[in-house]
Design goal:
The chain is α/β, with parallel strands linked by helices. 29% of the residues lie in helices and 14% in strands. It is built from eleven helices and nine strands. Helix 6 links the parallel strand 3 and strand 4. Helix 6 runs parallel beside helix 8. The relative contact order is 0.12. It binds pyridoxal-5'-phosphate and iron/sulfur cluster (SF4). Pyridoxal-5'-phosphate (PLP) binds next to strand 1 and strand 2.
Length: 332
């Protein structure tokens, strides 16, 4: 920051990032071109984590727009996970027999530059209307094989506690629903939103698993830890999901620090995702062979509790597959 004080408001334009000292003046035109196509949002919590003096800062890299985003590589796809063909009603994605996604909104606290839904997410898109939400809930009610409702988006914790609580209560009331899951970046990106009221909204009479998206150990600040603690005390079970990202966590040391930080926050690492080929994300790509080699280094070195499953989405909606690394009992 030029004056040394972190911003108190969320930064949503290239100019605001520059004024806060996070982007040099020379980078503003390129960032403005990116902003024509993709949303920008850097919360005060995230801005405070960025070291503007470090050109390789792993937090900045996740959130600050880069002109490389406007270059689509030949293998990149607008809908890399192919949600569209698996959408029985607006806001629902049903790809696996026993579980389905509900996307009540497409807004997020921050907009990650590598997001696989980057063509869809944004501040003013995708909030289901009352009628659309009713239709989505009716789909769950008449689909008895779906035992798990997974709220994602966008970020469901951007909803008001009252509205989120109402959706969860309605889903939990269905006899076939055994567990609820929420995927969110809010606890690390906007921990102030995790109020006691929000934690109370997540406490339903069915088990609720909250999968926290975090990619770097530094994201587990004191405020994030306090937010996660409020959730744990409300009975929420915390899981972690991360994306393997060039320049953010592509070393054994960075991954070890990330998974250890999760465990200290009572977050069990669940998935490490191979980057999905969304448009303009090539600068984050780490080859699968390299990801496997990094995980091999961690085997034996860190507690087994720290181990996520390394997964990749197959093309054309084929679903997730584990990527190993594979071991044989005789291997050294
Ligand atoms: C990832 C995903 C899920 C959840 O899969 P798990 O392996 O249970 O975490 C469910 N539905 C869709 C469409 C998904 O992409
Ligand atoms: S919080 Fe999740 S959905 Fe939102 S931009 Fe980041 S990766 Fe995408």
């Amino acid at each position: 920051m030029p004056d040394g004080t972190p911003p108190t408001r969320t930064l949503k334009t290239a100019r605001a990032l520059q004024a806060a000292g996070l982007l040099p003046e020379t980078a503003v035109p390129g960032a403005e071109a990116v902003a024509q196509r993709y949303s920008i949002s850097v919360t005060p919590a995230v801005a405070a984590l960025i070291d503007p003096a470090d050109p390789a800062d792993p937090i900045a890299r996740q959130y600050l727009p880069d002109p490389a985003e406007l270059v689509t590589a030949p293998h990149e796809l607008a809908d890399p996970t192919a949600d569209a063909p698996f959408t029985p009603v607006k806001g629902v994605v049903h790809r696996y027999p026993d579980r389905a996604l509900l996307k009540p909104l497409l807004a997020c606290p921050v907009y990650c530059r590598f997001c696989f839904r980057r063509e869809a997410v944004g501040p003013d898109g995708g909030l289901l209307t009352e009628a659309e939400l009713e239709a989505a809930l009716a789909w769950f009610a008449r689909t008895p094989e779906v035992r798990e409702a997974i709220l994602t988006g966008g970020d469901p914790l951007m909803l008001s506690p009252r509205r989120l609580g109402e959706i969860l209560r309605r889903l939990a009331a269905l006899p076939q629903i055994e567990i609820l899951r929420v995927h969110s970046r809010v606890p690390v990106a906007a921990p102030g939103l995790v109020t006691e009221a929000l934690a109370a909204a997540l406490a339903t009479d069915k088990p609720l698993y909250l999968c926290v998206h975090a990619n770097h150990a530094r994201e587990f600040t004191a405020e994030a830890m306090a937010a996660l603690d409020r959730l744990t005390r409300a009975g929420v079970v915390l899981l972690g999901q991360s994306v393997l990202l060039r320049g953010v966590n592509d070393s054994a040391d960075a991954l070890e620090a990330l998974f250890r930080a999760m465990l200290r926050a009572r977050v069990k690492p669940y998935y490490l995702h191979q980057l999905d080929p969304a448009p303009g994300t090539a600068r984050f790509a780490v080859p699968v062979a390299e990801g496997r080699a990094l995980l091999r280094v961690l085997r034996g070195r860190v507690t087994g509790l720290a181990w996520p499953t390394y997964v990749q989405e197959r093309p054309a909606g084929g679903g997730k597959v584990p990527l190993g690394p594979e071991y044989s009992p005789n291997e050294g």
